[in-house]
Structures are given as structure tokens and as C-alpha cells.
TrEMBL record:
Residues 9-106 form the Yippee domain. It holds the Pfam family Yippee-Mis18. This is Protein yippee-like. Belongs to the yippee family. The keyword Ribosomal protein does not apply. One of its GO terms (molecular function) is metal ion binding. PROSITE patterns: YIPPEE. It comes from Ziziphus jujuba. The gene is LOC107430059. The keyword Transmembrane helix does not apply. Keywords: Metal-binding, Zinc.
Length: 107
């Protein structure tokens, strides 16, 4: 009997199916995006990061940059560039991808 080879579980852009994140990089599924639930990822791939801007989010002031699919340019979420409150520093360099903007690929 042949061994079943299972690749990494991926998340893709909801618009064009470009692979944008690995399930193994999910830190939390308990975040809030602009349009509902969002996931915090340690890494993202095949994305472009827009210009930095300060935003007042639910957890305080942060410097963030919107994250776009590198293929279709759909806004998927944002990257935390800086957290001003000490308790929020763990988010720096991490990515928020909105649940409504990503789909599970092949799992």
C-alpha cells in the first residue's frame, strides 16, 4: 500500500487562490478584522505590504500596513509594524488575515 503524502495545509486568497499563509503559522484565531473574525499569523507569503500608517484599533494605537495579495491585489488584512503599548508588542511583525478574505486550500 502506498504511503499517503500530505502537504502543508495552506490558506489562499479568496479571490484568486494564490497561496498566502500556512496553517502552521496561525498564532490565534481570536482576532477582529475590519469585516469580522481574523487570524493572527507569524508569517505570510505572496503578499505585498502597503505604506505604514497609525491606526487606533481595539487594543490601542498601532502602526500597521495593509497587506495585499501579490497576484490580484485584494486587501487581505494588515501587518503590525509597531505597537505602542507594552502588552501589545508581541504583535509586531505579525500579520492579520481576515477570515472572509482567505480560504482553506486542499484540506
Amino acid at each position: 500500500m502506498a504511503d499517503l503524502v500530505i502537504g502543508p495545509r495552506l490558506y489562499s486568497c479568496c479571490n484568486c487562490r494564490n497561496h498566502v499563509a500556512l496553517h502552521d503559522d496561525v498564532i490565534s484565531k481570536a482576532f477582529q478584522g475590519r469585516n469580522g473574525r481574523a487570524f493572527l499569523f507569524s508569517h505570510a507569503m505572496n503578499v505585498m505590504v502597503g505604506p505604514k500608517e497609525d491606526r487606533h484599533l481595539m487594543t490601542g494605537l498601532h502602526t500597521v500596513a495593509d497587506v495585499y495579495c501579490s497576484d490580484c491585489h485584494e486587501v487581505l488584512g494588515w501587518k503590525y509594524e509597531r505597537a505602542y503599548e507594552e502588552t501589545q508588542k508581541y504583535k509586531e511583525g505579525k500579520f492579520i488575515l481576515e477570515k472572509s478574505k482567505i480560504v482553506k486550500e486542499d484540506w
